[in-house]
Amino acid sequence: MKRNIFLVLGLVGILSLAACSDNATAPAKSTSIDETFSADKVMMVRSESNSKALRPGSQTIAEIAEAAGFNLLLAAVGYIAETNPESAIIAGLLDKNQYTVFAPTDQAFINLVTAVTPLLDPDVLANAGPFAAIDLLLGEGTIEAVVSYHVTEGRRAANSVVPRRGFRTIETLLEGATFTVSTSAVITAVGNTANIAAADISASNGIIHVIDAVLLPVDLGL
Fold it and tell me: In order of start, what are the domains of the chain with their CATH numbers?
């Protein structure tokens, strides 16, 4: 399977252990993402996007994620590549399909794993990592479903994600699952909420919006 999987497969084991470590800390701030995409400028980016379409960047979504330090998102993609090599999400993110990705930071993944650790099988957690443990708890394919819930088809800049009034519903790659976005760039998912912390990072095969929580397509009561 030659879809630049080398970008993610090597991260799975090490980063899965890091996610559930008692000493896990937030990654150092990346210098790869321009400061114009900072959280306090999301609304300005949305406004500017109304008059100027975002041109495709020179790097793929996977390459930007690797350079910007979205290590646990890539580890989750790598886990899917191992457990379901024919997954449509793998082909889409690593090939040339145009997708918009709502990308959780490493700290967002760490926060999720910390929250659900008491529910996970400790042996599976220790030996196979949190992704396998979550799949065991909630059913095979849960991680793939969660990642799919962060992706929508096409290039959707901030102006087509964050509404000027009311709420906008975003259809995701997880069949039948949607979330809404408010005028203040708050995402309301099935099981939690998240903030768009950075917007309109343009890749050759789509657009990335950085979010501060892992979106849950089910309500875990967290």
Answer: 6-211 (2.30.180.10)
Cα 202 to Cα 122: distance, rounded to the nearest angstrom: 39
What band does 40 get if pLDDT is binned at 50, 70 and 90? very low
Residues 6+ apart with CB under 8 A from 128: 16
- Report the candidate in 220, 81, 85, 74 with the shortest Cα–Cα distance to residue 150: 74
The pair phi, psi for residue 201, each rounded to 5°, is -90, 110
User: Between these two residues, 44 and 194, which has the higher pLDDT value?
Assistant: 194
The CA–CA distances, whole Å, from 115 to 120, 130, 164, 208, 214 equal 10, 11, 34, 26, 12
pLDDT tens digits for range 132-180: 999 999 899 999 999 999 999 999 999 999 999 999 999 999 999 999 9
Q: Parallel, antiparallel, or unpaired: how do β-strands 99-104 and 206-211 relate?
A: parallel
